[in-house]
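== Protein entry: sequence and backbone fold ==
=== Local backbone shapes as whole numbers ===
==== Amino acids and backbone structure tokens ====
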Amino acid sequence: MASLLKSAWQYRGFVATSVANEFKTRLARSKFGTAWLVLHPLAQVLIFALVLTNVLAARLPGVDNKFAYAIYLLSGILCWSLFNEIVQRLVTVFIDNGSLLKKIQFPRITLPLVVVGSAMVSNLALLGVILLGLPAFGVYPNLNYLWLPVLMLITVALATGIGLLLGTLNVFVRDIAQATMVVLQFWFWVTPIVYPINVVPEAFKVTLSLNPVMPLVMGYHNVIVFGTAPPALWGSLITALVFLALAMVVFRRASSEMVDVL
């Protein structure tokens, strides 16, 4: 474990350069440039807000703001988009970079770090746009916004642990990537992102309580929409650390065989 962390630190320049090059490649010849980093999640929020607010007359109890539901969606998708992007990309990160792994000798752990770094930059850009736009909707930051870095780090840790574990296993069993995409679709809807937790039947709340992403999404909701502190995050933090430890053990044992399988 220590050797993996040491290798990652020694190649920190490579990771930073790779993240920068990824954005340069992604935005090359693009007229809107970095705007695309936030336009996709914002479009998703707009669609949900229009459908659920206008068609289904969705409202947030206890919040006297006609834009409250749109802000609720923004804060939930801010958390989910970070988690979802990291998991999805890590599941295929070693297969996507198979030719690179065969040609160049470098610590394989840097590839997941590039993915995580790229996802964090995109998410920070979206967060910046949201924070700049909130005053226009009558929502102003308070001291509880200091919880946002904590929520973000736990989300990253949880997604990295799950994604790295599945990505390592996917090298040997390619069905894992396909199954992960299906599971993430269900996972989105069993997380209170587009609906408030108070509308969920009591019997179903027991199932939701097993979802480690739920406290994180609710934390974003509490901080950004309601201006309060997040709920207890110990469950999500412990789950994240367990997955990270398990992923590192599996990755360390399987990394020497990856190139042969790829």
